[in-house]
């Protein structure tokens, strides 16, 4: 290879660096996606290769069973929680982007929950929400608020709020760091000019901050939406989908591994993918239609 010309060596190097990622992409992304799509048209039980082509029967069953789509009401808790978390994260990002004493310490502390593994986070919050010795009920008792003590995971009217809060707490730091990075890209001269012109803090936020980070806000809304639709680890590890905490992904996993209906589970996964793409397209088309 050393006898080749510089141009030929460059082409071989580029070919080598591109080939490995493309092979890995094909093996772990493209091929599984195509296989998933194929399995959705079969009655495969996940054992061996004995599968029968049944066409659109799985999709017909999905859209004819109201219970399959009824679990999206659980995903709604995570979506609303994600919107609240994103708003608070933007507020904290603005505060911690200023010259505040100890701002780097607060950034690290608020980002740490995202670093924790989901299983560790759930185990920790089990000790927070436990009805008898949980720290939350203990704190309420110390403050004289015994009437506020609840079975946070046993009450079907509260359990999804409790789980959505865990998700908000875990992913808050990531949203905040993304917003801090976006805010640091805004020239300080704009704020100084606005201040000289007599603009208030709210006016600077509305007319400088929001337009400048519009793309980042769009990204965060997409991540919030997809994260809510794909909520799985926290409700599954904490409750195994019991007490009304089943999400669409949990139902899909149960359909595959508990009921051994991989064909129907694959069709449900394809439907979820199509729903995500549809909602993202609508969001970009109408919510951010003013963008070039």
From TrEMBL:
<dbReference type="InterPro" id="IPR035906">
    <property type="entry name" value="MetI-like_sf"/>
</dbReference>
<feature type="transmembrane region" description="Helical">
    <location>
        <begin position="104"/>
        <end position="125"/>
    </location>
</feature>
<feature type="domain" description="ABC transmembrane type-1">
    <location>
        <begin position="71"/>
        <end position="283"/>
    </location>
</feature>
<feature type="transmembrane region" description="Helical">
    <location>
        <begin position="12"/>
        <end position="41"/>
    </location>
</feature>
<dbReference type="InterPro" id="IPR051393">
    <property type="entry name" value="ABC_transporter_permease"/>
</dbReference>
<feature type="transmembrane region" description="Helical">
    <location>
        <begin position="262"/>
        <end position="282"/>
    </location>
</feature>
<comment type="similarity">
    <text>Belongs to the binding-protein-dependent transport system permease family.</text>
</comment>
<keyword id="KW-0812">Transmembrane</keyword>
<protein>
    <submittedName>
        <fullName>Sugar ABC transporter permease</fullName>
    </submittedName>
</protein>
<dbReference type="InterPro" id="IPR000515">
    <property type="entry name" value="MetI-like"/>
</dbReference>
<dbReference type="Pfam" id="PF00528">
    <property type="entry name" value="BPD_transp_1"/>
</dbReference>
<dbReference type="GO" id="GO:0055085">
    <property type="term" value="P:transmembrane transport"/>
</dbReference>
<feature type="transmembrane region" description="Helical">
    <location>
        <begin position="76"/>
        <end position="97"/>
    </location>
</feature>
<feature type="transmembrane region" description="Helical">
    <location>
        <begin position="216"/>
        <end position="242"/>
    </location>
</feature>
<dbReference type="GO" id="GO:0005886">
    <property type="term" value="C:plasma membrane"/>
</dbReference>
<keyword id="KW-1003">Cell membrane</keyword>
<keyword id="KW-0472">Membrane</keyword>
<keyword id="KW-0813">Transport</keyword>
<feature type="transmembrane region" description="Helical">
    <location>
        <begin position="161"/>
        <end position="183"/>
    </location>
</feature>
<keyword id="KW-1133">Transmembrane helix</keyword>
């Amino acid at each position: 290879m050393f006898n080749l010309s510089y141009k030929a060596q460059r082409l071989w190097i580029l070919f080598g660096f591109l080939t490995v990622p493309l092979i890995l992409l094909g093996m772990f992304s493209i091929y599984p996606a195509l296989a998933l799509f194929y399995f959705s048209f079969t009655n495969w039980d996940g054992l061996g290769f004995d599968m029968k082509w049944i066409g659109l029967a799985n999709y017909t069953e999905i859209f004819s069973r109201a219970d399959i789509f009824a679990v999206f009401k659980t995903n709604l808790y995570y979506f609303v929680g994600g919107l609240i978390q994103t708003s608070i994260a933007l507020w904290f990002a603005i505060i911690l982007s200023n010259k505040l004493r100890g701002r780097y310490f607060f950034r690290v502390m608020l980002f740490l929950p995202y670093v924790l593994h989901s299983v560790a986070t759930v185990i920790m919050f089990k000790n927070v929400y436990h009805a008898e010795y949980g720290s939350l009920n203990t704190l309420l008792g110390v403050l004289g608020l015994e009437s506020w003590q609840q079975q946070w995971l046993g009450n079907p009217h509260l359990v999804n709020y409790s789980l959505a809060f865990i998700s908000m707490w875990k992913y808050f730091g990531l949203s905040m760091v993304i917003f801090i990075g976006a805010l640091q890209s805004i020239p300080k001269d704009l704020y100084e000019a606005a201040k000289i012109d007599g603009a208030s803090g709210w006016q600077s936020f509305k007319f400088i901050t929001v337009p400048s980070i519009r793309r980042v806000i769009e990204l965060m809304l997409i991540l919030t939406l997809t994260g809510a639709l794909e909520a799985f680890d926290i409700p599954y590890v904490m409750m195994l989908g019991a007490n009304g905490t089943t999400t669409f992904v949990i139902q899909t996993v149960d359909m595959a591994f508990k009921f051994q209906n991989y064909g129907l589970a694959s069709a449900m996964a394809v439907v979820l993918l199509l729903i995500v793409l549809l909602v993202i397209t609508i969001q970009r088309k109408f919510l951010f239609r003013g963008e070039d």
